[in-house]
């Protein structure tokens, strides 16, 4: 079994990936680092839904500090950018750098993220941010697997129904709340 630090954004995006890892020789430690989420109640809701699943699976869960003020400072000037634009690049970098630093400090050789599992995200944009984060800390590999293939999209939807997970209607930040709910997954 190989240990992997898995940065996770929410239960709907994470559970099929976690299950796949457990069935394929990997032991994920789930790292919840999502200071982008607004408001705090929404953050707590997403965190508790993911933790509910992990407790059942007996997997470790690490919750990073929540600092939305720091996140907003990092996004300054990008508030009006569209989704998939430069604000999202900066947001991915913000979270994945924290994950990479945690992975390096705790002896992981490999880290991954659930951020690109939603079909509304740009896989290349997420993977570029993950690669960038790995390069910042050094001696760490970012696992740029396509988590939508191999039946994982269908399994994601099955688990969503099976566990009746809360399925958020916007990406996470206050700027994404402008987006029509029907466009979210
Ligand atoms: S839309 Fe989503 S990915 Fe983009 S900045 Fe907001 S929370 Fe981050």
Short description:
The chain has 185 residues and is of the alpha/beta class.
CATH superfamily: HUPs
Net shape? globular
Kindly name the structural category: alpha/beta
Widest sheet, order of strands: 3-2-1-4-5
First-to-last CA distance: 31 Å
Radius of gyration: 15 Å
Domain count: the total is 1
CATH fold type: Rossmann fold
The unique ligands bound to this protein are: iron/sulfur cluster
- Beta-strand percent range: 5-15%
Describe the structure in your own words.
By secondary structure, the protein is of the alpha/beta class. It has a single domain, classed as HUPs (Rossmann fold). Helices cover about 45% and strands about 10% of the residues. The protein is built from six helices and five strands. The chain has a five-stranded parallel beta sheet, sandwiched between helices. Helix 1 packs parallel to helix 2 and helix 1 crosses helix 6. The longest helix is centred in the middle third of the chain and has 20 residues. Bound molecules: iron/sulfur cluster.
Question: Could you list some keywords that capture this structure?
Answer:
single chain, 185 residues, alpha/beta, Rossmann fold, 6 helices, 46% helix, globular, binds iron/sulfur cluster
Would you spell out the secondary-structure blueprint of this structure?
Blueprint: E1 2-7, H1 11-23, E2 26-32, H2 40-57, E3 61-63, H3 68-74, H4 86-105, E4 110-113, H5 123-137, E5 141-142, H6 152-163
Helix pairs in contact: 1-2, 1-6, 4-5
The chain binds iron/sulfur cluster.
Residues 36, 83, 87-88, 91, 171-173, 175-176 line the site of iron/sulfur cluster.
């Amino acid at each position: 079994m190989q240990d992997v630090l898995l940065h996770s954004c929410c239960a709907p995006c994470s559970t099929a990936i976690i299950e796949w890892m457990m069935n394929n020789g990997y032991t994920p430690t789930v790292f919840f680092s999502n200071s982008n989420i607004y408001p705090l109640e929404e953050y707590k809701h997403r965190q508790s839904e993911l933790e509910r699943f992990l407790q059942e699976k007996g997997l470790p869960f690490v919750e990073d500090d929540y600092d939305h003020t720091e996140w907003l400072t990092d996004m300054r000037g990008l508030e009006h950018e569209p989704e998939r634009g430069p604000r999202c690049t900066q947001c991915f970098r913000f979270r994945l750098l924290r994950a990479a630093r945690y992975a390096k400090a705790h002896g992981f050789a490999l880290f991954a993220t659930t951020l690109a599992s939603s079909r509304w995200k740009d896989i290349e944009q997420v993977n570029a941010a993950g690669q960038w984060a790995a390069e910042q800390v050094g001696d760490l590999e970012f696992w740029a697997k396509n988590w939508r293939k191999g039946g994982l999209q269908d399994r994601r939807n099955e688990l969503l129904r099976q566990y009746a997970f809360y399925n958020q209607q916007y990406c996470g930040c206050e700027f994404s709340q402008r987006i029509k709910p029907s466009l979210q997954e």
